[in-house]
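Quick one, tokens below:
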């Protein structure tokens, strides 16, 4: 399952991402924001989504906030979350290949829908390389 989290800054982009995932035939659950409220906080939705993503190794998360910074910080507080802030496809590629990321974070303020689609495709279709990266990831999760 793909769990979606955004604050008000990413609300519009996330609405488009939902339609895109539907077009791809991918299931998702949005923990919020499901309405546009400029006083909401990325922390609320990030922490909620974290528990859901962490409940199964095959789960993925797509999180947004204005810069992506706050939600990335909140995401990585959970030991089972490996969140990567991806402003472009290359980051998404290496975030999966080397870091086995299970959460994709994008900076909604600086990411067009067109760009987001490419980043999402790359994130969802790149496999973890394993090998030398396994011990490194283990070390930072302990
Ligand atoms: C909200 O104004 C903004 O601070 C938030 O979306 C994000 O950029 C925080 O890191």
């Amino acid at each position: 399952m793909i769990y979606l989290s955004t604050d008000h800054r990413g609300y519009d982009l996330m609405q488009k991402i939902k339609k895109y995932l539907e077009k791809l035939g991918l299931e998702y659950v949005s923990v919020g924001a499901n309405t546009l409220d400029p006083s909401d906080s990325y922390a609320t939705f990030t922490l909620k989504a974290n528990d859901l993503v962490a409940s199964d190794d095959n789960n993925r998360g797509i999180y947004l906030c204005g810069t992506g910074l706050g939600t990335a910080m909140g995401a990585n507080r959970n030991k089972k979350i490996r969140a990567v802030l991806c402003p472009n496809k290359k980051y998404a590629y290496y975030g999966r290949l080397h870091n086995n990321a299970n959460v994709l974070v994008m900076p909604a303020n600086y990411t067009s829908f067109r760009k987001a689609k490419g980043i999402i495709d790359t994130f969802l279709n790149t496999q973890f390389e394993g090998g030398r990266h396994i011990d490194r990831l283990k070390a930072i999760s302990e």
